[in-house]
């Protein structure tokens, strides 16, 4: 039987044109067209999902101190397969069982402003197979540090969290969910124009490191993640 969260998510929009508020300048990143890419809107974030890797390509959020932390920590860890995606293009709960990887959020559940948004963040369309120790260690610290910054910021902070895959990388589960080699979290303060990027290898021994520049992220990924940016 489908969960309540899954049924609710199935009614959410499937075009970024219907959730432009999550993108700086209301423009999504300028990725090259590819097969099986699907746009998904949620209450608190947006996801570009790949039916090839069966993971997000990226998630996008607009955070500010007025909304951040609005949910009491009665978190519901109910992961669910996203019914908006064809079965042949999505991860299922069984893919992660005994895989040795955790279900790692791209848009963090702790960022969500409402109970509904938090429940939606447990969609597998918002998950990647992530090193267990990395997810609970270095990556968790990066998420917490980002929230602390948002609490100090004057206005909106845009966050893009993305995946990077190596050639011939590992896949898990009956549906072959791809394991990213690296993850990144881009943080852009719309008030100050400051931008920085956390770039992390998806492995147990990874530690928080000095952020890289936006220009370096573009060089590594060949994608302009932000529009109309002042150099």
Automatic annotation (TrEMBL):
Keyword rRNA processing in annotation: no
Keyword set includes Hydrolase: yes
Annotated GO MF terms: endonuclease activity
UniProt xrefs under InterPro entries: DNA/RNA_non-sp_Endonuclease_sf, Endo_G_ENPP1-like_dom, ENPP1-3/EXOG-like_nuc-like, His-Me_finger_sf, Non-specific_endonuclease
Protein name: DNA/RNA non-specific endonuclease
Organism for this UniProt entry: Pelomonas parva
PANTHER family: ENDONUCLEASE G, MITOCHONDRIAL (PTHR13966:SF5), ENDONUCLEASE RELATED (PTHR13966)
Domain of life: Bacteria
Pfam families the record matches: Endonuclease_NS
Keywords carried by this UniProt record: Endonuclease, Hydrolase, Nuclease
Domain ENPP1-3/EXOG-like endonuclease/phosphodiesterase span(s) in chain numbering: 42-220
Domain annotation DNA/RNA non-specific endonuclease/pyrophosphatase/phosphodiesterase: ranges: 41-221
